[in-house]
Design a protein that fits this description.
alpha/beta, two-stranded antiparallel sheet
Length: 288
C-alpha cells in the first residue's frame, strides 16, 4: 500500500520533469557535464515551485485587470521597477530559484522522450540468455563448499551460551550439524545485448573550437542515452585530419590539432573496424 508521501513525491518528480523538459535545450548544451557518468547527480536550477493556494494580489490591487492595456504591457506592480546596477541593495523580494538533483540517466530518459527516440532492437547474442548465480541469503542445508563459517560459528556460540556450556576462560566453540549455515543462491537470467558506438571527429584546422565543442557535447549525450539501453556498450573513437587513427576516450575529447582534412579516411577506418570486429547480424552499430 503506497503512502500519501509517496504519491506526493511522485507528483513532485513529474512536475520537475515537466520543468526540465521546458528548458531541456539549455541543460544538455552545458559542456561541463562531459565526463560524468549515468548515476552522477546534476544540479538543475528551476523556478520556485510553490504549493497551490489562494493569494492576494500585489499591493492589494483589486479587480480582475488593470484597465484596457496593450499587448506586451507588464502585469502587476508599478512601472519603473527595474533592476539596479548592483552597487546598492534593493528593497523588494528577489527571484527565487530552486535547485533539484537529477541523475544523468534521468536527463537522458527525458531527452529520449522529448525527441521520441525509438526503443533499441536487440540483435545477435541478445537471443541468448546468460544465466548468472547470485548469493541471496543463508540456509541450513547445502554443500560444504558453500558453508558460511562466520554464521556457523555464531550459531554454535549462541547455542553454547544458551545451554551454559561456554566458558570465557576456555573459549572453545564446537559447531554441531544443526549449527551449520550455508550460502543460498539464485540463478538469474540476463539477455546479452551487443552494441558499439564508433565516434568520428575532424580535428583539422578547418574545425573551430566551437564546432569541436558541439561534436563533443553531441557525442557525450549519445553515449549517455545508449548506456541506458545496453549494459555492455562498447565505444571506439576515431579522429582524423588528412589521416584517420583510433584513439582512447581522453584523447578524443581533449585533442587539439591542425592541418588538412580528408573525411574519407575516417569512413574507411570505421568500415574496417566493423568488418573485423562487429558483424552486422550480431551487433547494433552506431557510427557518428
Amino acid at each position: 500500500m503506497s503512502l500519501k508521501i509517496d504519491q506526493d513525491h511522485s507528483r513532485f518528480r513529474a512536475i520537475v520533469r515537466g520543468k526540465i523538459r521546458e528548458n531541456l535545450r539549455r541543460y544538455i548544451s552545458q559542456g561541463e557535464l562531459i565526463g560524468r557518468k549515468g548515476k552522477d547527480l546534476v544540479s538543475i536550477p528551476l523556478p520556485q515551485i510553490d504549493i497551490p493556494r489562494f493569494r492576494f494580489g500585489d499591493k492589494q490591487q483589486g479587480g480582475t485587470g488593470q484597465g484596457d492595456g496593450d499587448p506586451g504591457d507588464p502585469m502587476g506592480g508599478e512601472q519603473g521597477e527595474e533592476g539596479g546596477d548592483g552597487k546598492q541593495a534593493g528593497e523588494g523580494a528577489g527571484e527565487h530559484v530552486l535547485e533539484v538533483d537529477v541523475t544523468l540517466d534521468e536527463l537522458a530518459a527525458i531527452l529520449g522522450e522529448e525527441l521520441e527516440l525509438p526503443d533499441i532492437q536487440d540483435k545477435g547474442k541478445s537471443k541468448i540468455i546468460s544465466a548468472k548465480d547470485r548469493y541471496t541469503g543463508i540456509r541450513r542445508v547445502g554443500p560444504e563448499s558453500l558453508r558460511h563459517f562466520r554464521r556457523t560459528y555464531r550459531e554454535a556460540l549462541k547455542r553454547q551460551i544458551t545451554m551454559g556450556t561456554y566458558s570465557p576462560d576456555i573459549p572453545i566453540v564446537v559447531p554441531i550439524p544443526d549449527d551449520r549455515r550455508y550460502r543460498s543462491w539464485k540463478t538469474e537470467a540476463e539477455p546479452v545485448a551487443n552494441a558499439v558506438i564508433i565516434y568520428m571527429m575532424d580535428v583539422s584546422g578547418s574545425m573551430g573550437d566551437e564546432q569541436k565543442e558541439i561534436v563533443r557535447i553531441e557525442s557525450f549525450w549519445i553515449d549517455t542515452w545508449l548506456q541506458r539501453q545496453y549494459k555492455g556498450l562498447e565505444s571506439r573513437y576515431i579522429i582524423h585530419d588528412a589521416v584517420a587513427r583510433e584513439v582512447d576516450r581522453e584523447t578524443f575529447f581533449h585533442t587539439r590539432e591542425s592541418g588538412g582534412t580528408m573525411i574519407s579516411s575516417a569512413y574507411k577506418l570505421c568500415a574496417q573496424l566493423m568488418d573485423d570486429h562487429y558483424p552486422a547480424d550480431e551487433w547494433n552499430i552506431y557510427p557518428f
